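@channel anyone free to eyeball this complex?
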Amino acid sequence: METVKITIDNKVIEVAKGTTILKAAKEAGIHIPTLCYLHLHDLNIENKPAGCRICVVEVEGRRNLAPACVTECLDGMVINTHNIRVLNSRKTVLELILSDHPTDCLICAKNGNCELQTMAQEFGVRKIHYEGEQSTYREDTSPAIIRDVDKCIMCRRCEMMCNEVQTVGVLSAVNRGFMSVVAPAFEMNLDHSECTYCGQCVAVCPTGALTEVDHTNQVIRALADPTKTVVVQTAPAVRAALGEEFGMEPGTLVTGKLAAALRRLGFNYVFDTDFAADLTIMEEGTELLDRLTRHLNGDKDVPLPILTSCCPGWVNFFEHQFPDMRDIPSTARSPQQMFGAIAKTYFAEKIGVKRDDLVVVSIMPCLAKKYECQREEFATDGNPDVDFSISTRELAHLIKQSNINFNDLADEDFDNPLGESTGAAVIFGTTGGVIEAAVRTAYEVHTGKKLEKVDFEELRGMDFIREATIDFNGLPIRIGIAHGLGNARKLLQDIKDGKSNFHAIEIMACPGGCIGGGGQPLHHGDSSIIKARQKAIYREDAGKAIRKSHENPYIIQLYEEFLGKPMSEKSHHLLHTHYFDKSKEIKVVE
Amino acid sequence: MGQVKSLADLRKIKENQQGKMSLREKSNNPESLVQVRVAMATCGIASGAKQVMDFFIEEFDKRNIQAVVTQTGCMGYCFAEPTVEVTLPGKEPVVFGYVDAKKADDIIEKYVKNGELVEGIIPVNYETIEKK
Amino acid sequence: MAKYKMHVLVCGGTGCHASQSDLLLDNLKTIVADKGLDNEVQVIATGCFGFCEKGPIVKIMPDNTFYTQVTPEDAREIIEEHLIKGRKVNRLLYVDPENQEHIADSKHMGFYKKQLRIALRNCGFIDPENIDEYIARDGYEAMAKCLTEMTPQQVIDIMKKSGLRGRGGGGFPTGLKWEITNRSVSDIKYVVCNADEGDPGAFMDRSILEGDPHSVIEAMAICGYCIGGEHGLVYIRAEYPLAINRLKIAIEQAREYGLLGKNILGSDFSFDIELRYGAGAFVCGEETALIHSMEGLRGEPTVKPPFPSVSGYFEKPTNVNNVETFANVPVIINKGAEWFSSIGSEKSKGTKVFALAGKINNVGLIEVPMGTTLREVIYEIGGGIKDGKKFKAVQTGGPSGGCLTEKHLDVPIDYDNLIASGSMMGSGGMIVMDEDDCMVSVAKFYLDFTVEESCGKCSPCRIGNKRLYEILDKITQGKGTRDDIDRLRNLSTVIKDTALCGLGQTSPNPVLSTIDNFWDEYIEHVTDKKCRSGQCKALLQYFIDAENCVGCTACARNCPVNAIAGERKGIHVIDQTTCIKCGACMEKCKFNAVYIK
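replying in thread with the prediction:
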């Protein structure tokens, strides 16, 4: 490896050729502050527009200061990261950014969690020397995401996520000069765009410019209403991340505390979306086998591969971008919606509560779920199957304001019948998990044999596109996995071009899957957090007594008592859906 | 328009066009060329100045002499029309009167080519010449 | 075939065109035909003569008569008097501002005397829509020479030896740029002509493209040959319709002749040119922003390296040169590197085209050898300051440059001297200011421009320039403090030090150079609340003339803030600290005793 020698703050170090000053400094133990820069190392995602100019350093012999994030080290470079010229410039630039930023920190959704606020605090800014006019814009509220771009600092992280990672292409810089801001084309509202509500823009926004729509008040009101029975479901990825909001190490599993906290909050029944994940496997797995069998038997009308459909961001994506291929994904509803449908029928009947008096709340690592539960097709006579969906972050706020000492809670279990789940359901929370869960069940159903080993390591990992062939007793089943919508697009394009030879593909919109969802505690650019959550998910799976969905006794009971069998008429009615062509829905509004 | 296939083709176009533009080229630095000014007011035209001018233009071209022929208003020697002022590079202007084709031919052959003076000089620059 | 005795050249540049030179041209042609002179007189439209102050221009050859401000109605008189009777139309001749004499021959005009036209060699001389006229003036000969007799490296060596530097403002050695692009290994390479001229008041590139489009086409092909690229792109502002049209005609003609296209002049070299239109964003003159704009992306710069010569248009090596730079190339090949490098100064060779504007007699486009002094340009070529006023400053380099003063007048103009003086060459804008110009307002004007034209990508430029503007505005409103000047200076330094691209790195220059050179004016504004030029209206003060005041008390009675004191029948006085400049006193005074200063 070719190396170069540089002097940084009087320290001589040798780094690989091509290393940026920022990375070299890190190797030398020097922390150069950054704002727009973002590097999700484990996901190979990097944002470096070199726009904020906070990371400038002095390079001897250079006329102006150099942005450390993009300037490569050259042999013999002498770098000073904190002399008076650098410190003055850096602070002045920060003051400039602050001068065009609202100062309503106390009531900002990102209060205490804002990278700009932290930086101002670290720099000891006490006065803004360059106050002046502030750029203001219309606030945009969509079903899931609020854009308050007065707070946009043009770091372009969201733009990079939306365009390069997700290839959705909704957010980009518009206007010029002082009025430059990141927005949908023509500064339309998000709900008039092709936005999938994946929330990755929110996940990386350093300030309060992009936040989730807060539904906690609706939840509090429902809990306080004596006429309502309030049921809660919580998604698999939440238990692997919620602890972070309470100062726990990333990757700490808080399943038991989570159930306890939800009960303290006053939910009448504390259930688990994992139950519905098992149900999803029953439906989706059966559909997979059915389509596979018919396809292999030569039925040309049955297309393969079958694509998973649990991820609402992904569903929004193909409805907008590949509407002509909407017969390819499984018709199975997502676990959140399956849960809602079962809760408001089977369970409501069981406890003798009218549909209208039952409120279903979901705790999700996701913002697209907020949109999903508002879809018209998931409501009966205007009453939605899932009433409110709140994110992991919102739940943390709810717990904190309800005076619950989360860290001291003793573990509790979920309630039954909709709280029992298997290891297969837990891994829904990570990329590769849904398809692994499906394989565990489909294998046994198809071959009639018992799986010796339920861990399919070949399906796991963090690579954006993965593929594996699983031997179904002599029948090789080719499986593809993609996370991040840009990678999904690649696989989808291959199918469109007739180049795909997969039988089944799992797609999750967010990098890492739900563990990296737009509703999760903010990672602030540290991708090791997402990796730690993934490990926790597999740990939870390994610790479960039952690890295959079809072995969940309450699932078996549900089919016996209510649904009959997978893909039954009742299942179709309650657990399956259809998709829409949304490519024509883009409206330009004044 | 044909295609230009070689440097030679290009030069052909160039030469052809240069003839048409030489007038402009020459007037860019007339001091280095023979300058002929033909008085072309009514009096001059009536006495045949136009023909004289045409003669100069054509003959300079034929005899390959780099010259600029321009017209000017009445020079005030209406008695001697057509009148022509000739300036050789680096020399003072000389005005000739009663110029016809024959005289013009003389002017070209003798004065322009060899610097010999020809009859019919109107001594406008009398003093200047004397000073020398 | 007609042997023309006279050529009538009518300026067809944008400026003259706007003053009906097209109609003038039609009239001239029609009347010439009516008089049966069409075999003797050729009437053509040319590119810009540069003397835009007095357009439309008509030049008659061979006698070099230079008519100014010619209207379409003047056509008949010019033909009947000048063309037929040989009598120059005196009233249309240029009048020397010094001695009020009519000058018949353009060569004797001060405006042209000091000029040396290399890049503009054909502007105002040939018909830009006729490729033959270009060829007649050695057109495409340089390209032919390169393709048939020289290797790319030999051509690059000539360019390097000539000392030609980028005329767009950066001043990067052209030959070196070509060499770097030549060394970049790639299957596809691009030649880009930057015609996104954006400095306020600058129109060098437009005039070249309008007056001599083939020179740019030829140079781009030569560049393509040198770097090993077959694709040429001209990024041109859509606001230049005439230049676009002329360029399109020229490209078409060159294609018909086979001077663009496959296997040019029977060689292995193929080259063609496409146009790309810009929407007039100043920042798109920055080469990386220009390339992104051509790629269909937002026109904003990215960090260099990588330089376009290594990774440019669609990540292919791309050689970007400015129009004027290209226009120099064919002449250099034809006349040799030694010839070119003998012109100009030590480190800046050749000539530079400037757009002269402002309070100067001869507004227009000029080309002078590098090393010419500002004094020569302003007083000899420019004809001095308008209306006999006093010279105050000259702004060079557009919004990126600075204001130079009296003490810089004898500085020989070249890249390095201008930078050493606190300004820069830029693309060649030169705006002259006189005693009526307020230097704080000048700085504000330029900041207003950069605030508008910033792409918004980096914070120092996006927010910092806005703040600079706000502070300057505050000072011109009479609300500035001494502290504001320090803030201006610190902020300017930081913006220069931290901005991403050339726009932001230079945008504070007008502020810094006016503070440095006109410190007193800034101090006057903030401490005395005075603007000596009277341009800052908010700083004007109301006074009562003791001679005219009769003590009627009308002013005092009507003053809303009781700022006027005085006894009945006594002289009244305005208290400046209380006065709100509403003007009520002036309105009510029947004796013209109230005045503003």
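from a first look: Strands of chain B lie at 34-39, 67-72, 84-87, 94-96, 121-122.
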